């Protein structure tokens, strides 16, 4: 290779690295939004969508600092991708990214009890409707006032209608009149919007939301909405409440996507779910791991499930690990042995017979 050609290639490579390095969290979140549809599937009309998704999740995983809004939207995207993407590689990566985010913040288990309501998705939809109304008030400055000066008369007329409807007043048709009104009333309107947003945010924080149900009802959808809402409408006086709500909703979402991963049809996704369950500890993972283990046929995934079970001591985990000692795969037997030693603080070797005898004489009485 000639020196000029080598130099040109090096310059091109440096340019590509520099271009990639220019991207930040909002760029990666935008990429994920661009390439994945509402249900997490890749959009067929986006060129190289899978590669863009992979790079965006890798970028978010390596990012040193994320705002709470960015973390929330990233976790929500992970939930959609982990369930809906056709590629097992992307689904597994989404599970890994979600658990990484949960560890880095960290997203702790909920301390306060969930609200006892009959239909959490309906309640969530009501709170979102209330927040949207306050969002419209916050848009006066960012959207409606500027649109009054739009040269397109239809846009300007629509902005005027919105201003009259949102404020309940009519100060004329000109930008100057409305701008003067806004400068006089801005602090009051923003304070009122923040005050009216407090209760909906507090309610959303304490709802137990499943993945199923209405679009506005699942934890992942509510998390994505609230994460975007607070990014668009900064309310410093509600920062602590917003942070608490986003963390609780993100924790729910991470737990739900991990449990779902353990039931995936693909072994690599199940293995990623098991690793996540070993890292982000949660009571819901114990039953999910015990459900997955006897149904698992892939040796690598079974090893990961056994390793995760060592973090969830109990009668079921010990009995399941003893049964795995009879398997033909040596890696599985080694993992089962390590798990039993971790669970019991005893070592009866690699043979299922010895552990079964110990269990019947002593171990069965260790846990209720």
Give a topology summary.
Layout: H1 3-21, H2 25-35, H3 49-62, H4 68-84, H5 88-104, H6 120-147, H7 153-167, H8 175-205, H9 219-232, H10 239-261, H11 267-279, H12 285-292, H13 299-309, H14 315-324, H15 330-344, H16 352-361
Helix pairs in contact: 2-3, 2-4, 3-5, 4-5, 4-9, 4-10, 5-10, 5-11, 6-7, 6-8, 6-9, 8-10, 9-10, 10-11, 11-13, 12-13, 13-15, 14-15, 14-16
Rounded to an integer, what's the Rg over CA atoms? 26 Å
Please report the number of helical segments.
16
Mean pLDDT: 92
The overall strand count is 0
State the order of secondary-structure elements, H for helix, E for strand: HHHHHHHHHHHHHHHH
SS-based structural class? Answer: mainly alpha
Largest sheet: none
Which stretches of 5+ consecutive residues score pLDDT under 50?
1-20, 213-217
In whole angstroms, the N-to-C terminal distance is: 72 Å
Shape: elongated
Q: What fraction of residues sit in β-strands?
A: under 5%
